[in-house]
């Protein structure tokens, strides 16, 4: 994870001009008629920096709008000689309330409802159940959820973003993620996550409301006192990132990111582009080499590969396994893989949409799930893991390998997939982490096995 400080000079806001010029979204895409808006903020001011213009536009157009504040931001000046954490919490809660009133603007606009959870600033990752339950209470089946970017490199922002994404996936709701500190520490050249983001144009009224709401937080952009510990947290250079006439979000559409639509989604993809991930590029070839070198055993009897695509990894697994069954949701990919691997008698390739269908494999001593876990919903992922547990025999290896950056259109990320495996009690035997991917090989408890 990239480390940074708010005291750093940070990236020049002008460097992000190309992001603001990408093909824009429209407000009606985000909030169709009858939809309501729920915005989550880890700290007071996150909501106006990341989504103030959207909030103002929604209220002005009559959409019911709720802003859920997870903490009061009492840790903004941890060493302040003049303000206690309780005093800072009171100040920042009052600023939050003023900011929402400012965003509403016109008295004829819909009231913006604020919900404050009062959880500890800096420790939000420990309150998953509380935040998800609170979100469940305010959403409807027409809600658009807006939350901090899950790759913002701020632990509270990432935690709240992950919890919101889980709820959005469970209820098949539209999810927007807003970066805050990402603009500060990343650059367009060093990090490519911006390529999955879309700008939302703001009209003059929304822009004006947003800038006024930002100024409702003087505790963050003005010094609390002359003491160095009370210096402003948000510099004018940093605030410039939020002074433009667009807001930028990562969008995850409901329903697209699920196994239920995998056959349709990926069959269309493989028909259009036979090798959509360029399985012969340097990244893919190096990743396969690391994967194969990481396998604890020299030889396996019965392997199952989930997401075999066009067979690039399948062919190399066949050299280490007596039998390999590869399954993929795309019949087009399976057909291409069969042509590619026609001479390999120890390989069987089968169209199979997991977890709706269960691969016909028993007592596998190796299961490989590479780069497909985040194409499932959270519930589908748990079902798939249960299928794996029913498929393997004693002393088996289960290998998970996933890209660590956001996947545009899907709510889960690679880290989510691996965390879910850990939560089931799977024990990692091998762990290999790089900036782009995480590979783990697990020992999985088998029922009846001591």
From TrEMBL:
User: What are the recorded Gene Ontology BP terms?
Assistant: glycoside metabolic process; methylation
Alphabetical keyword list: Methyltransferase, Transferase, Zinc
- InterPro entries according to UniProt: GlcNAc_PI_deacetylase-related, LmbE-like_dom_sf, Methyltransf_25, SAM-dependent_MTases_sf
**May I ask which residue range the UniProt record assigns to the signal sequence?**
none
- Which segments constitute the Methyltransferase domain? 304-392
Which GO terms label this protein's molecular function in UniProt? hydrolase activity, acting on carbon-nitrogen (but not peptide) bonds, in linear amides; methyltransferase activity
**Metal-binding among keywords:** no
Q: Which PANTHER family match?
A: BLR3841 PROTEIN, N-ACETYLGLUCOSAMINYL-PHOSPHATIDYLINOSITOL DE-N-ACETYLASE-RELATED
- Please identify the protein, giving its name as recorded: Methyltransferase domain-containing protein
């Amino acid at each position: 994870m990239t480390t940074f400080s708010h005291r750093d000079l940070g990236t020049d806001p002008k460097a992000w001009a190309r992001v603001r010029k990408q093909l824009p979204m429209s407000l009606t895409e985000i909030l169709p008629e009858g939809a309501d808006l729920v915005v989550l903020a880890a700290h007071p001011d996150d909501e106006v920096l990341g989504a103030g213009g959207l909030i103002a536009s929604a209220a002005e157009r009559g959409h019911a709008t709720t802003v859920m504040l997870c903490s009061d931001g009492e840790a903004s000046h941890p060493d302040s000689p003049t303000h206690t954490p309780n005093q800072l919490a009171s100040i920042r809660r009052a600023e939050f309330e003023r900011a929402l009133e400012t965003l509403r603007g016109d008295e004829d606009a819909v009231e913006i409802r604020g919900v404050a959870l009062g959880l500890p600033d800096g420790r939000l990752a420990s309150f998953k159940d509380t935040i998800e339950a609170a979100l469940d209470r305010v959403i409807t089946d027409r809600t658009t959820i807006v939350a901090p970017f899950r790759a913002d490199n701020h632990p509270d922002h990432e935690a709240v973003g992950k919890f919101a994404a889980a709820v959005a996936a469970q209820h098949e709701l539209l999810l927007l993620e807003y970066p805050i500190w990402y603009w500060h520490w990343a650059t367009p050249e060093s990090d490519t996550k911006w390529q999955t983001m879309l700008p939302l144009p703001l009209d003059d009224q929304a822009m004006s409301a947003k800038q006024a709401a930002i100024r409702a937080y003087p505790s963050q952009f003005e010094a609390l006192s002359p003491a160095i510990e009370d210096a402003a947290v948000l510099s004018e250079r940093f605030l410039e990132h939020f002074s433009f006439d667009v807001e930028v979000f990562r969008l995850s559409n409901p329903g697209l990111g699920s196994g239920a639509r995998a056959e349709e989604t990926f069959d269309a993809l493989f028909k259009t582009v036979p090798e959509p991930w360029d399985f012969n590029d340097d990244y893919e070839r190096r990743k396969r080499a690391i994967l194969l070198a990481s396998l604890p055993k020299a030889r396996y009897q019965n392997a199952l590969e989930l997401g075999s695509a066009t067979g690039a990894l399948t062919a190399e697994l066949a050299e280490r396994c007596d039998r390999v069954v590869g399954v993929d949701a795309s019949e087009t990919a399976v057909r291409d893989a069969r042509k590619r691997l026609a001479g390999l008698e120890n390989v069987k390739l089968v169209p199979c949409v997991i977890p709706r269908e269960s691969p016909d494999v028993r007592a596998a001593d190796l299961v490989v799930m590479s780069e497909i876990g985040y194409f499932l919903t959270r519930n589908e992922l748990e079902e798939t893991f249960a299928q794996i547990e029913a498929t393997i025999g004693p002393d088996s290896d289960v290998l998970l390998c996933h890209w660590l950056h956001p996947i545009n259109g899907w709510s889960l990320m690679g880290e989510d997939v691996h965390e879910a495996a850990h939560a089931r009690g799977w024990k990692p035997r091998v762990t290999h982490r790089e900036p782009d991917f995480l590979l783990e090989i697990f020992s999985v408890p088998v029922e009846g096995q001591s």
